[in-house]
Amino acid sequence: MHEMSLMQGILDSVENAACEAGAIAVSEVRLSIGQMTEIVPDAMDFAFEALSPGTLCEGAQLKVTMIAIRSKCNVCDHEFEHDRYHWGCPKCDSLATELLAGREMYIESIEVEMSDEEPQSGQTDGRDAIVVNAVTEPLSCAGERA
Ligand SMILES: [Zn+2]
Q1: Taking Cα atoms as reference points, which of 125, 138, 108 lies closest to residue 29?
Q2: How far is the CA of 75 from the centre of ligand 1 (A)?
């Protein structure tokens, strides 16, 4: 299943980012997925549930935002949103269009729980949002890798 290997890469990236930030757990993972990718959000949920136990992402919320497909007409410069099957420019009917968005998939942000090392500050709820870039090659991370 395609989504399984994708999710494995995402979990690796998220764990590395969380680990580097000194987090003890991940509470939320936000993904953006282009509608052009043919990735099925339900299958991503399933893959997340299947693969996250035992990782820092165990118990985290997975939130998927779908990115609309957008193209630009090379003839009249019109920009428009469309579905996977309709490429033509709605203004001039040209099929000479260029895809601007919809084929990407990236980790938008993750929310992590930090360890409680400064209890005297008292005010923090221990949650912090950090932003990571697109799925990248896993970096080495001391300790946590199986
Ligand atoms: Zn056009």
Answers
A1: 108
A2: 5
CA of 121 to the centre of ligand 1 (A): 59
> Domain total for the chain?
1
pLDDT value for 101:
95
* Residue 136 pLDDT > 50: no
Specify if 36 maps to a domain. yes
Residue 50, in any domain of the structure: yes
Which residues, 6 or more positions from 34, have their beta carbon under 8 angstroms from its beta carbon? 66, 67, 69, 101, 102, 103, 104, 105
In the reported structure, the alpha carbon of residue 106 is separated from the centroid of ligand 1 by a whole-number distance in angstroms of 29
Average pLDDT over residues 121-128: 45
